[in-house]
């Protein structure tokens, strides 16, 4: 499943054409496998280490009977959530849901007055264009990817809209796995503010873009404000996580 989502593994492109472009510009196999770059046809930007982490966290909460659903805030093409649903299916779990929270229309306009660190994202449109890929992926396209894997069912739920509008009243009582991929200070803070209190003891909080100054600052500020002292563990060059103990 990981190989299909990434379109590469074990030093080879998997079920896809080689990346287009000049050799100097095409992503290397090492970059794709480590999530530094991606195959243009991939369902996820997340490399193997972060997918391995998602699997390990899911299997940990299942083994320890930690109550709650799985939530990702910022899903892009939905590949990581597809993987979450696949792990649940592999374990025969039918009483947990995977929630996809996203605008499915790109990033909100940065509120640099309230969140000054996000002023940098006023230039984000040009950065996204440089990626050669639109950040905005319609919800129906994401559903189609789930459907293609035979994984679109009642255990997959969508929270469509900006976090400030959807997360406060999100119909999720208990969360066992919370994965943040919002990039902005504001998006990261809002996800933590509204969802972290619902994270069960023994559940995991995963941060995909801790390397980004804005995201890291929001996480650090939130942890300090709420006296969160659980150790932050490194996944790879960008991802971190911790397990909620209380």
UniProtKB/TrEMBL annotation:
Signal peptide: none annotated. SUPFAM superfamilies: S-adenosyl-L-methionine-dependent methyltransferases (SSF53335). It comes from the Bacteria. Gene3D superfamilies: Vaccinia Virus protein VP39. InterPro entries: SAM-dependent_MTases_sf, TylF_MeTrfase. Pfam families: TylF. This is Macrocin O-methyltransferase. It comes from Streptomyces dysideae. The lineage of its organism: Bacteria, Bacillati, Actinomycetota, Actinomycetes, Kitasatosporales.
């Amino acid at each position: 499943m990981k190989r299909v989502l990434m379109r590469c593994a074990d030093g080879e492109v998997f079920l896809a054409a080689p990346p287009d472009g000049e050799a100097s510009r095409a992503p290397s196999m090492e970059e794709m496998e480590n999530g530094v770059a991606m195959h243009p046809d991939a369902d996820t930007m997340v490399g193997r280490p972060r997918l391995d982490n998602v699997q390990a966290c899911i299997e940990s909460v299942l083994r320890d009977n930690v109550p709650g659903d799985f939530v990702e805030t910022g899903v892009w093409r939905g590949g990581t959530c597809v993987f979450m649903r696949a792990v649940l299916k592999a374990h025969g779990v039918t009483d947990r849901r995977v929630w996809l929270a996203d605008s499915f229309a790109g990033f909100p306009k940065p509120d640099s007055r309230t969140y000054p660190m996000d002023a940098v994202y006023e230039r984000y449109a040009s950065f996204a264009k440089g990626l050669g890929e639109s950040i905005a992926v319609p919800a129906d396209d994401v559903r189609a990817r789930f459907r293609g894997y035979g994984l679109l069912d009642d255990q997959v739920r969508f929270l469509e809209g900006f976090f400030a509008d959807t997360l406060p009243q999100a119909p999720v009582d208990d969360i066992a796995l919370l994965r943040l991929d919002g990039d902005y200070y504001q998006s990261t803070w809002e996800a933590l503010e509204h969802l972290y209190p619902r994270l069960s003891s023994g559940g995991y909080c995963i941060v995909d873009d801790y390397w980004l100054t804005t995201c890291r600052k929001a996480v650090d500020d939130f942890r300090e404000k709420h006296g969160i002292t659980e150790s932050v563990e490194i996944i790879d060059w960008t991802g971190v996580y911790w397990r909620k103990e209380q």
